[in-house]
Amino acid sequence: MKRELKLIVNGDTHVVYIDPWKTLTDVLRDDLQLTGTKLGCNSGECGACTVLINGKAVKSCLVLALQAQGKEIITIEGLEGEQGKLHPLQQAFIDHFAVQCGFCTPGMILSAKAFLDKNPNPTEEEVRVALSGNLCRCTGYVKIIEAVLAANEGKGASQ
Amino acid sequence: MTEADIHSTYYSNLPKFEYLEARTVGEACSLLKKYGDRAKIIAGGTDLLVSMKKRNITPWYIINIKNIPDLEYIQYDNEKGLKIGALTALESIESSPMIRERFFIVADAAHQIGSPQIRNWATIGGNLCNAAPSADMALPLIGLGAMVKIEGINGEKVFPIEQFFIGPGINVLETGEILTEIQVPTSSLHTGGAYLKLPSRTSIDIAVVGVAVVLTLNSEHRRVLDARIVLGAVAPIPMRAHKAENIIKGKVIEEQLIVRAAQTAAEEARPISDIRGSAKYRKEMVRVLTNLVIRQAIGSTS
Lengths: 159, 302
Prior knowledge:
The structure holds two protein chains of two kinds.
Chain A: E1 3-9, E2 12-18, H1 24-31, E3 50-53, E4 56-59, E5 72-74, H2 88-95, H3 105-118, H4 124-130, H5 141-152
Parallel strand pairs in A: 1-5
Antiparallel strand pairs in A: 1-2, 3-4, 3-5
Helix pairs in contact in A: 2-5
Chain B: H1 3-10, E1 18-21, H2 25-35, E2 39-42, H3 48-53, E3 61-64, E4 74-77, E5 81-85, H4 90-95, H5 97-102, H6 104-111, H7 116-121, H8 124-129, H9 138-143, E6 147-152, E7 155-160, E8 165-167, E9 170-171, E10 177-184, E11 191-198, E12 209-217, E13 224-232, E14 239-240, H10 242-248, H11 255-268, H12 279-301
Parallel strand pairs in B: 1-3, 2-3
Antiparallel strand pairs in B: 4-5, 5-10, 6-7, 6-10, 8-9, 11-12, 12-13, 13-14
Helix pairs in contact in B: 10-11, 11-12
């Protein structure tokens, strides 16, 4: 039996009717067509499916969609900067060449956002720990860390 | 082959089940009682859903307790000690200033589980109820003499967490019961503890070996008044190394005793060989870690 699910995604309220065994990743991608959230390992290891639930980064492949009933969710589509520009983290990832194939990028950026929102002045080590649940298989961690630190210092915008 | 079939070939989607929402502890207990073995509780679900995707378990009913209010709290009282609601996220435990100050070993163990996203969603109750031989939270809590509160349709009971585990993946909960609270007694000023596991904290892997040590020293910080050495992933359940404890208990700390206690802990361990490590390796690592952790625990008391 399909169940009613209300989600507040990127500020918009959505009501969908879903099978109970759907994960939050499934519903975001298949029902809401928000395909910026990626499904990688499907077992909570890789972090490609990271979204924010009530401001906290979680792996949406390990969240039953119905458990997110009524909660506020931010996906990569929900990030934006001032006046329609990119979010500083997004711009910093571009400026610092922190994107290779791009599959891990939405998860990386959302983990970084949740972390920076809580820790305004992190050390490099703290950034590394904050991103330890996001895997990049293009082996690009150095530039990703640089981008997060730069975004935090307001150097994200194009020169 | 339809598109959906291809999808499920590549990714193991969840098996089908009926979803039930419990709004109170009482409701959760009566749903559990009603559906028995066919039902599983979901809190954070970060272990449960992985097991289901692997088809290790395929429950007919999933009872969600994550949205029950009032089971997510951290309270401290000088007399009553620390109380943690079973639905408290691991992240809340690792970042609680009070737990970091008074029960650092608990915060440290929480920090060593999974990844940040897992710790944001996974709960302390779930980590314990899964009863993994390697359960990170169990070790320091046994070391600190913690108690668990169990609620069921026939009321509630409180008993030492040491008695909570029966075997790999098996706990003492009976049909219709859930774990609702973890209680940690106030420890003395001269109590200290440490927890280490392999692989180290930078990894998100399951522990191959874990060792927690909690010691109480006398006021001169020389004699060991009480000692608990707890080993993880080297027996069907988290186990205490009683003989090793007895070697240092009541004694004045000295090098030889620490070395002997570590050796004894390794002899007491009953590990198996599996994909993560051989029994021989695990025993040796118990010795190495116990040696280190006893020293760290002594260091943390001053």
